[in-house]
Amino acid sequence: MEQQTGDYIVIKAKDSGVTVIGLTRGQDTRFHHTEKLDKNEVLICQFTDHTSAIKIRGKAHVITRYGEVHTDQ
C-alpha cells in the first residue's frame, strides 16, 4: 500500500448543500471526487498524488495549516 503524506484540510459546512470537489493532477485538470455536506458536517481532506486541488461551493469554514477561511456565499 502506498503511503499518502500530503497536507490535510478540514471543512465544516455552515449550511446544508456544501459541495467539496477533488481535482486531479496532470496535464488536464479533472474532477475525480465530489462530496455533499449537510449543515455542521465535517470533512477531512488530504492532498495526494492524485488530488492537486479542492474546490468548495457553499458556506463553509475551512481550516488548513496555513490558516482559516470562511466562504462568503
Can you walk through the features of this model?
The termini are far apart. The protein has strands at residues 8-13, 18-24, 31-37, 42-46, 51-57, 60-64, 67-70. With 73 residues, the chain is mostly beta strands. Strands 4-1-6-7 form a four-stranded antiparallel beta sheet, with no helix packed on it. A three-stranded antiparallel beta sheet has the order 3-2-5, with no helix packed on it. The protein has a single domain (8-70), classed as Immunoglobulin-like (Sandwich). The mean pLDDT is 88. Pfam families: TrpBP. Belongs to the MtrB family. Keywords: RNA-binding, Transcription, Transcription regulation. This is Transcription attenuation protein MtrB.
